[in-house]
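Quick start: read one record
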Amino acid sequence: MKVILLQSYSTENQDCAYGSHINGRRFSKRRKMDWTFNTKSYEAPEKTKTALFRHLCGEELKKQLRAFDLKPNDGCEGVTLQQVLQEFDKYFLDYQNEVFDSFKFLEIKQEQGEIFTDYYSRLHNAVVECNNGESQDRMLRDKLIQGLLDKALQERLIRETSKKARAIQEVASECKTAENSKVQASVMNEKLTVNALKNFKN
């Protein structure tokens, strides 16, 4: 028997609409990975699948599931897992707001002391919520450059990108390389300074 795990989601201690919006997005994505995919190879009665979902979904989703008051489809002995998932998808659709998601994405900038990989990760997670479709990579690339702390690197990327289109992966790789080079140069210079002071004292 295959074991399926599902992260519990809760809107407790959050603003109701915003919390439900965020958890709804995560629920929808997570269920596609953990349930729609995995249950294809999980041979068990629908009643068992639904019971397992109810057990693992978290208290907030349990309350909402009871509120749905779902009835079995024609020809089915009980409510199917697919019914449950579709009902939650419809429920959370009310909380999706692409305008607000785009606003949050466009507000992101690299913070002082924030390493590039953390900055890039925040941007990547935020742009997914904007539903930009085929333009997602370009939006991510442009915003990544716009929000960089390293202004010399930013100017160079703007200049180079204006001459030749560059993919987001290429830009991100160059940013990582530039950051690593800065750190290495700083360590080398610090060591040279320490050695110079030692020699001066001797």
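The CA atoms of residues 69 and 89 lie 15 Å apart.
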